[in-house]
TrEMBL record:
Protein's UniProt name: Diguanylate cyclase
GO molecular function, one term: cyclic-guanylate-specific phosphodiesterase activity
Source lineage: Bacteria, Bacillati, Bacillota, Clostridia, Eubacteriales
UniProt domain EAL: residue ranges: 24-278
Highest taxon of the lineage: Bacteria
Shown segment, full-protein numbering: 257 to 537 of 537
Keyword vocabulary terms for this entry: Coiled coil, Membrane, Transmembrane, Transmembrane helix
Amino acid sequence: QAKRKGRNTYCFFNDEMGSAVSRRLRIENGLRYALKNNELYLCYQPQVESKTGRIKGLEALIRWKSPELGMVPAGEFIPIAEETGIIVEIGKWVLENVCKQNKIWLTNGYNFDSISINISSIQLKQADFLDTVREILDTSGVEPQKIEIEITETAFMESLEENINKLKGLKDMGVKISLDDFGTGYSSLNYLRRLPISTLKIDKSFIDNICDSSSDRDITYGIIQLANKINLNVVAEGVEGKEQVDILKNMNCDIIQGYYFSKPIGSNEVEEVLKRGYFSI
Ligand code: C2E
Ligand code: MG
Ligand code: MG
Ligand code: MG
């Protein structure tokens, strides 16, 4: 910015410092207007049943096209939105819009089991979180069963008891819950038993190496067997290749999600995909 103002402006940062700081600040600043200015939108990634190729569901993933910065990856702006607290507002927008879209698709005859929504720990922490979800479900007229909430294990390790109660509240409403990025946090098999979840999502970092690394393959198989044993659905995230699909299918991994079948796509494309209903597998 100093540059834009011309040569006579004082500059306290060198270029490198300046660019790192200003990107952070620009994201933080830009996020404040992103909602109002309609810069946020949702993409959806299909989740595919490994036995049949049927599209079981979709995961909603937020996208931000900033007029100043262009496309900013969710992995970059979500943590900043969390630090500033604006994630609460953004998260509510995501819930509302996914529920609206969900209802429209079902009303128009596009079928799926559920749409997954990522929920930040900051959002979960809000005292009125359950009321917000209930209100949005009521307003949109979506069956709670058609919604699945994704939370990461690290998200609720702090104030575990409180969070378990919130998740129970969601479950009592009929909303499904899945544990995202499983295996990357402080997984304790002890609390796994106590969580009212229906699905485990095996993190991409394990899936990446299942073809080449026998230990990652063993870990993945172990998680799948555990999930099957305790009656949880299991999703493999970030599956990109045919060989991975074959391995996961042989391991009885129920659901596969990844670029191999589809990248996250816009709602028009989703309708094409749902019309077909299946991927060849
Ligand atoms: P996540 O929930 O674990 O989502 C999976 C990420 O992996 C997504 O990145 C998805 O686009 C990407 N992915 C899926 N399949 C493949 C694959 O085969 N290869 C590769 N390389 N990547 C794949 P994305 O959309 O950039 O989101 C990153 C993270 O940002 C998400 O991780 C989630 O933690 C967060 N996020 C995204 N949308 C939301 C949202 O609406 N609310 C909240 N709170 N967080 C969100
Ligand atoms: Mg997720
Ligand atoms: Mg994940
Ligand atoms: Mg993730």
